Amino acid sequence: MVQFPLAGLTIAVTGDFGPRRSHDTLRRWVEKNGGQWATKVSKDVTHLISTKEDYRSKAPMVKMALKLKLLNIMTFDWLEGKSRLTPPLDAIGMKPNSANAADSLMKRFRLAPRGDYLVAHAIKDAKKVKKARKQTKKETIKKGVDSFKKECQDIQSQLFSDRYHVYRDSTSFAYDISLVRVNLQQNHSERYALRLCTTHDAPHSYAALLTYHARAATVGKSVLAPIGSDWATAFAAFKDAFRAKTKVEWDDRFSAAAAAAAAGKSRAGEEVFVYAVPKEGEPRGEVREDFEVRG
Asked: Which pTM value belongs to this model?
């Protein structure tokens, strides 16, 4: 078997690899596997084992290694792999005492892509993974938004076909709002579309609708106040749904104190959605309880 997989190599180490991988432990490990241990970087050192942190900060030993350009700056995984070249050789179809077993196994390891164990490559790979995750998150949210918009259009089409449209108050504010909750840990968002609708022609009747959307799919639709409802019934249903999802009263939707109280409930574990308030300069809606009865 491969008794000394580190024979002919001189290894130095920089960085903290954890309590079970102290430099003294690594020294014994290197020497047990036939390697030479070095406490500083010189032209005689063949490999420097470095943490990503030391490599990024250009620790003294890393800086010297880069200056000499004579050695490989490797990850701990490389050292661990080299030191574990002692598996049962019959696993690869050879007898443990075969004359060419050790040479074949060493050759197999050496033919593995060297870049896989370079610290610089490991850092680049980590950046690629982070970038890919960020892109996946961005695409997931975009799919959710696109699907959500399509669902809005579908519902509006249904309403228009029934002689209904989204209600607008005296400020021209459209009662077609979004309530959002983003789950960063699971990388997805949830949305409710809350709408108050009215007929095109007088005498007006009203309806209130709620659609739940998550993970780029419509999960549920609810009729809060059926088509043909009077103003008081439909508007009350609209406000009740708003309060149930945001933990804020409709007339307190712009209150910082109410928002802070809702945030506290969210931190306490309650399911709280956030109202996407209109942008600056856009209609914000009436903010009083005594709405006149619409006829």
From this structure: 0.46
